[in-house]
Amino acid sequence: MAGPPFLCPDQSGRGSMDTKKTTFNNRLLPYLLLAPQLFITLVFFIWPAAQAVKSSFEREDPFGLSTAFVGLLHYQRLFEDPNYLDALSRTAVFAVSVTALSMLLGLAFAASVDRLVRSGKVYTTLLVWPYAVAPVVAGVLWWFLFNSSTGLMPFFLEKIGIDWDHDLNGTQAMILIIIAAAWKQVSYNFLFFLAGLQSVPQSLMEAAAIDGSGPVKRFFNISLPLLSPTTFFLFIINVNYTMFDTFPIVDATTVGGPAQATTTLVYKVYQDGYLGLNLGSSSAQSVLLMLIVMVLTFVQFRYVERRVQY
Amino acid sequence: MVENRPFLTFLTHAFLILGFAVVALPVYVAIIASTHDISTLMSGPVPLLPGSHFIENYTQILTSASAANGLPNYSHMALNSLIMALVITIGKIAISIISAFAIVYFRFPLRQLAFWIIFVTLMLPVEVRIMPTYKIVADLGMLNSWAGLTIPLIASATATFLFRQFFMTVPDEMLEAARVDGAGPMKFFRDILLPLSRTNIGALSVILFIYGWVQYLWPLLVTTDPGYYTLMMGMKRMVTVQDGVIQWQLVMAGSVLAMLPPILIVIFMQRLFIRGLTETEK
């Protein structure tokens, strides 16, 4: 390794790859320190991902004795399969609904708490805990609330003429998982919006107030534009959450039904691969999902630097 | 506040109280339902006031109820959840802090590559690689074992980034002073970096404990032996009744118990929790 013996001056400029200006110069030690993390990542992340890519181009005979290269066949089939295309658009609807609902509520709560000086802390405590509820528990709680024989909601909905049965009605099943997924995520968005609002310079607000703008106008003309990096960041995070972390909600309540109405992309990978043992198709679906996460992650990191700079 | 607007303040309070009521509704109903017997629950919408079966239901769930579903004892599953959450928390923090130390305080060939390999874990959540990961764990003989349940979840890019971020803010003079005193890298790590990282470790622990506690898909894939079931697995089995009635009063008692530990942690360690949340998810 080249470089002066003890003190290595930092020549790299600023960026994610910085080290200290001064570094230790042991040769073996850094590799030992990185070994556990790298080992787990290689064995349980990169290797399986590579396997998924590989088997998405292959077909295994029914006995698993031989495999044949089939090129893009699995991908082609997926995009001709109405079930997959439905799952794709359904997941988009699900992700956008959960994101919109939980972000709007989170922002409304944050803007309200931000107005209150002394009692704000109390309300924060009252609103943060749903983050800690497991998705599977959140799903079961809302499922129970909307359950057609025991639930509170169908009882009230019936009074206004809505016949609720998420075991038969696909749209209602979708609404159920949207509510359960959004409920869990509101506290997260609330905390980030609150942090964003609290870093809006007070002097700006005062100046606007002296110029005669009221609180509502100030919110839309000053706070909201300044929050746009937070909003963008939360949008990505929430789409990511809805696509991947909501598996337990679906699995414990609707199990993808009725008639596939709540089968999201992730749930379909699980159904086709783990339950249906259709390796090729499941792998192709995995690869497509990986591409989606990669795009989301890169977009997120690209903009993250600008996130909390006011 | 910039100016005093009593009516707007009143509206703000009203909105937040209403908001809290809506947010708390499912949990309130769960607590209420866990104090009634099944015939009360089945005969119409859930009552809004507590019933008299609180002790009975919770005793039943803690002692015998889960056996009916072929599940281990509830406290056994709770212990499994606790072990899993703790191993994941400690494991993630341990391997992340030493990798961040390596990346920040050493320069070595392939450092950039190591950084990218760690970064990749962000892009490959277990949900997108279900089958191949399952297969590897099966090939390694790690199905139905603590190792299989926890080790694949221990790699963490976010924790590594957090520690890296924090180490970059530690003044260089610390390192120079340590070196003048003849301290080697591990002594510097143990005696200076580790104590300085206390708050970060605390904040991260809260987030990671919750992460470990609520894990669902991974245990579902790798454990078929009920002896390894966690509370989250138990939830699923209790509501998957082929024929017959879901024992809602027990499901709700189980839900209340399963969400209590992480909720208490968030409420009582709120400052660490918020810090951990807003600083890790960058």
Task: Write up this protein.
The complex is a heterodimer of chains A (310) and B (282). Chain A is an all-alpha fold and 310 residues long. Chain A has 13 helices and two strands, in the order αββαααααααααααα. Chain A has a single domain (81-304), classed as MetI-like fold (Orthogonal Bundle), CATH 1.10.3720. Chain A has a two-stranded antiparallel sheet with strand order 1-2. In chain A, β1 (58-60) and β2 (67-69) form a beta hairpin. In chain A, α1 (29-55) crosses α13 (279-304) and α5 crosses α7. The model of chain A is unreliable at 1-16 (pLDDT under 50). Chain B is mainly alpha-helical and 282 residues long. Chain B has a single domain (71-280), classed as MetI-like (MetI-like fold), CATH 1.10.3720. The interface between A and B is large, with 111 and 106 residues.
List the helices and strands and how they pair.
The complex is a heterodimer of chains A (310) and B (282).
Chain A: H1 29-55, E1 58-60, E2 67-69, H2 73-80, H3 82-115, H4 120-128, H5 135-145, H6 152-159, H7 170-198, H8 202-210, H9 215-226, H10 228-244, H11 247-252, H12 265-275, H13 279-304
Antiparallel strand pairs in A: 1-2
Helix pairs in contact in A: 1-13, 2-13, 3-4, 3-7, 3-10, 5-7, 7-10, 10-13, 12-13
Chain B: H1 6-33, H2 38-42, H3 54-63, H4 74-105, H5 111-120, H6 130-139, H7 146-150, H8 157-169, H9 172-180, H10 185-196, H11 198-213, H12 217-222, H13 231-239, H14 248-268, H15 270-280
Helix pairs in contact in B: 1-14, 3-14, 4-8, 4-11, 11-15, 13-14, 14-15
